[in-house]
Specification:
By secondary structure, the protein is an alpha/beta fold. The protein has 25 helices and 30 strands. The structure holds iron/sulfur cluster. Iron/sulfur cluster (SF4) binds next to α1.
């Protein structure tokens, strides 16, 4: 019986699992003792193999909905690309990737866009996920690695502050670290909902949506007033404290309480727990980050961590929880509009020269635009006329969804590579059926910056190709003269050379070392380098070796409740679904657990509108409406609605206002109302 040790296809925890080819062709999932999940899996991981032979699986390319042979599909795509680029220039074709793609695929996709197509238009759905934390991490520390320490440190922290992260639902095996941590320490959760994670907290701060930044400023204000600022650390290891202290001085606890609804005494309790702890960790999640001020909010929590002297102190620090399976590696190797592999900047002449030499091209395009801005330009007079999508479903996952579908329909050519006919694939001229995780080798980089091996159990079914083979086939047809491998190991070897000397340096990572060491943490500049599980112990990767305080101030959400839209709407996740649901909505047991979208509302709101639990209601924002089942719960603030975004329709409501730095849309807060239908 064939068996491989691999990792779950879904979230960034990348739980270790075993896959076995059982009798009758069934694939069984088994546990495996890996350092992050220690044998644990959630429902999604347990059921992941059910999709391998799912009846909805695409098994042949589709051209305008009709099955065609692979050469016909690829010839059609490349023929249209040539025509459109001849008529409108290189930027007539755009590429959209995903945070679930392996490192090899993310690298190959960026190379395909820049070296083969020569387009500046490439970005990916990680823009909706990690971009605010990434931007804040780079401006403070000079590097973006989600957790700059191993996950196990969370369990040992005397105080752990989770901001907008519901790990009990999104990453259940991580819950064992919370159990460890709460056995001896203080867990503080900031979330407008009393989530499963918040229920486990020693202290739950339940703020008005959109006020996390003010809370961070208030916590820093109290830390100064109560004498918790680590002055020697601030003097020796940071720059910019005075400006940040000035902003925090204006955020006295009563002011923060008035704005956020969080009692001042709770703010004091949080600061005392953080300030007195020998080991304290502050972690942000999407709840703090998916805002038009997400970067500044993360910066405010990093400022607090720096003031307390946490980053680089053993067992302490700041980190963010990456969401998508390869959200970390996917953002390091060239899918982002302004970055080249290894986290090199595309406007850095030395970085460009390095990649031009490696890829054998005389020039590279400049920076493109972020995902939402790219979608906005599709099919416009000056925008791209064609889009190739790999591993993403923006019709469901992007904000203001009705606009997304409209822009995709305006294209001359939409190509989607996926293993199911997602809502985006349903609009495509060409659909290319691609391999699933158990049918391909490669590497993923988890939320700790640990590079892992994905191992194939079996070949893709007949008629199905790997994403790498698709990209290599398109490249050959488009006349790319350089090397474009379809073999993941060869691509990884090239990625090592591409990232050598860069911030996300994989030069010393080999598949053999990953096998031998349960993964290798980047940066790892040479094969004799041990890898970097913990960062910042001696210095920060900034020009002067110091971390940078960044002065940021609170500002309100882009939309506040008012006449016609009296409530806040916030969005999030549930345990039994993942991202846009293309996969998990097709798993019977997951669909049974979470069969349909819903909206949570407080009993006071329900009573006011005579809404009873379970009845369908209409939720309306300035951009659209959705009919959802009402869930009347006292775990949410009376001024707030919550809806999970895994189904079509929810993102018809959300606001596409962007963070000025990260270009993250404001998924987490908009103004809305709820209406009784009958
Ligand atoms: Fe998979 Fe994430 Fe669940 Fe682990 S927590 S089994 S990686 S979805």
């Amino acid at each position: 019986m064939a068996q491989v040790a691999t990792h779950c296809p879904y979230c960034a925890l990348q739980c270790g699992m075993t896959l076995r080819q059982a009798a009758g062709g069934r694939v069984d999932v088994g546990t495996r003792d890996f350092p992050t999940n220690r044998g644990g899996l959630c429902q999604k991981g347990w059921t992941a193999a059910e999709l391998l032979d799912h009846p909805d699986r695409l098994r042949t390319p589709l051209l305008h909905g009709e099955p065609v042979a692979w050469p016909v599909a690829l010839d059609f795509v490349t023929g249209r690309i040539r025509e459109l680029q001849a008529a409108h220039g290189r930027d007539a074709v755009a590429v959209f990737g995903g945070g679930g793609l392996t490192n090899e695929k993310a690298y190959a996709l960026g190379k395909f866009a820049r070296a083969v197509l020569g387009t500046r238009y490439v970005d990916y759905n990680g823009r909706f996920c990690m971009s605010s934390a990434a931007a804040a991490g780079i401006r403070a520390f000079g590097i973006d690695r989600g957790l700059p320490f191993p996950l196990a440190d969370l369990g040992r922290a005397d105080t752990l502050l989770l901001v907008g992260a519901n790990v009990a639902e999104t990453m259940p095996p991580l819950g064992r670290y919370l159990t460890e941590q709460t056995e001896h320490g203080t867990l503080i959760v900031i979330d407008p909902r009393r989530t499963e994670t918040a229920r486990r907290a020693t202290l739950h701060l339940q703020p008005t949506p959109g006020t996390d930044l003010a809370i961070a400023l208030g916590l820093l204000h109290i830390a100064v007033a109560e004498g918790y600022v680590d002055r020697p650390y601030v003097a020796a290891r940071t720059t910019g404290w005075d400006e940040v202290a000035k902003v925090a001085a204006a955020w006295w606890p009563a002011r923060v309480e008035r704005l956020s609804g969080v009692p001042a005494e709770d703010l004091y309790a949080a600061v005392h727990a953080l300030g007195r702890a020998e080991r304290a960790i502050i972690v942000t999640g999407r709840g703090a980050e998916q805002h038009a001020k997400g970067t500044d909010t993360v910066s405010a929590f990093i400022n607090l961590a720096l003031a307390l002297g946490l980053p680089g102190r053993p067992g302490s620090g700041y980190g963010c929880l990456t969401g998508q399976g390869n959200g970390q590696g996917g953002r390091e190797h060239g899918q982002k509009a302004d970055q080249l592999p290894g986290y090199r900047r595309i406007d850095d002449p030395a970085a460009r020269a390095h990649l031009m030499a490696l890829w054998g091209v005389p020039d590279l395009p400049g920076a493109g635009v972020s995902a939402v801005e790219l979608i906005d330009r599709l099919g416009t007079a000056d925008g791209p006329k064609a889009l190739l999508v790999f591993g993403a479903n923006p019709v469901v996952s992007a904000p203001r969804a009705s606009r997304v579908a409209r822009r995709l329909r305006a294209l001359d050519l939409l190509v989607v590579a996926d293993f199911f006919r997602s809502e985006t694939a349903a609009l495509a001229d060409v659909v290319l059926p691609t391999a699933q995780w158990a049918e391909e080798d490669g590497t993923m980089t988890n939320l700790e910056g640990r590079v892992l091996r994905r191992r194939a159990l079996r070949e893709p079914p007949p008629g199905v190709a790997t994403d790498l083979a698709v990209l290599a086939g398109l490249s050959a047809r488009l006349g790319y003269g350089g090397r474009f491998d379809a073999e993941p190991r060869a691509v990884f070897e090239e990625l090592r050379r591409a990232s050598a000397g860069a911030p996300a340096d994989y030069a010393g990572v080999t598949w053999e070392r990953i096998d031998a060491q349960d993964g290798v943490f980047w940066p790892c500049p040479g094969e004799d380098h041990p890898g970097s599980p913990r960062l910042f112990s001696d210095s920060f990767p900034t020009p002067d070796g110091r971390a940078r305080f960044v002065p940021v101030d609170h500002r309100p959400p882009v939309e506040e409740p008012g006449p016609g839209f009296p409530l806040y709407l916030t969005t999030g996740r549930v345990l039994a679904q993942y991202q846009s649901g293309t996969q998990t909505r097709r798993v019977a047991s997951l669909a049974a657990t979470a069969p349909a979208p819903f909206v949570e509302l407080h009993p006071d709101v329900a009573a006011l509108l005579s809404i009873v639990d379970g009845e369908p209601v209409r939720v309306v924002s300035r951009r659209g409406a959705a009919v959802l089942a009402a869930r009347v719960v006292d775990t949410i603030r009376p001024d707030t609605l919550f809806a999970p975004f895994h189904w079509p329709g929810i993102n018809a409501l959300t606001n596409d206002a962007l963070d000025p730095t990260s270009r993250m849309p404001e998924f987490k807060v908009c103004a809305a109302r709820v209406e009784k239908l009958t």
